[in-house]
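Good morning C.,

I know you're traveling, so I'll keep this short. The sequence:
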Amino acid sequence: MGITQVSMKVKNPSRPRKVFEGKFLVDSGATYTVVPAAELKRMGIKPVREEDFVLADGKIISRQVGNALYEYGGVEAAAPVLFGEKGDSLLLGIFTLESLGFSLDPLKRELYKATLRV
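The tokens, ready to paste straight into the viewer:
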């Protein structure tokens, strides 16, 4: 399986001029998007809860979760954001992909505008 990375902007919903831009690994198996906690704090995004997550190796970790705006491909949408800790990678998770209306084509290793259904 190939690796797909995309450049995306993350914004503070209450202060959209506070922006973090990074190259995210698209992980359709990940629930939330991961951004370094230091960047989220710099932008003024605060955690609203803590959740437990199961990693691919079965290990359980706890991370703080907040809310962010995401911008990709000219589309902006809100979704949860996970406060990444040291060693955590920038990940683009499925909640953010769906919120933005995109899907992953694993063969072409690119995102495409999804057919949205109600």
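Safe travels,
E.
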